[in-house]
Amino acid sequence: MYLFTEDSQNYPVVFCVRHLPQGVVPGEGPRYAVDLAVAGFFYKTWAFRPQRNLSPDAPANAWQLAPLLVGREAIKVTSHAARNTGFVTFALLAGILILVVAVLVITIWFTWRENSRPLFPSSTDIGMLSDGPSSEPRGTDVSPESPPDENR
């Protein structure tokens, strides 16, 4: 079978299958077309002479190269929704892109947050964190928020 995809630019992909779907008869010509889905493996590059030139610059009866794929069978595509996978592909790619951007933003935010903390705490931070002796007498409260102690 010569398969023409939407992005093949009028160049075929040659596919060999063991079975055609029921109701699909072999045919040829520019007006013969059947919507098929095929799964297979690349076998080799196939050289053939097309009946009509695929490229206007090519000389008459020039050899044309196409990928030759081998598969078990072709499946006839009947519904328009099964053929139109553009929206699903776009949605999946957009979801993956959003996920990648979210991971990058979170990674950059955590890196910035870790880098904004001082590597070594200052001496005032150490004095506030430690329970050891300080330079102030223990019985006095020097906080401006508390009222003075009258018992002193």
Descriptive report:
The chain is of the alpha+beta class. Helices cover 28% and strands 21% of the residues. It folds into two domains: 2-80, no CATH class; 85-119. It has helices at residues 80-83, 86-116, 123-129; strands at residues 2-3, 13-16, 36-48, 64-76. It has a four-stranded mixed beta sheet, with no helix packed on it.
From the structure above, extract its key features.
152 residues; alpha+beta; 2 domains; 4-stranded mixed sheet
Number of strands: 4
Shape: elongated
Reading the helices and strands in chain order gives EEEEHHH
Measured by DSSP, the beta-strand proportion falls in 15-25%
Question: How far from one another are the termini?
Answer: 104 Å
Question: Would you tell me the overall average pLDDT?
Answer: 76
Strands ordered across the widest β-sheet:
1-2-4-3
- Overall helicity: 25-40%
**Structural Rg:** 37 Å
Sheet of most strands: 4 strands, mixed
Q: Give the count of helical stretches.
A: 3
Low-pLDDT parts are: none
Number of domains: 2
Coarse structural class: alpha+beta
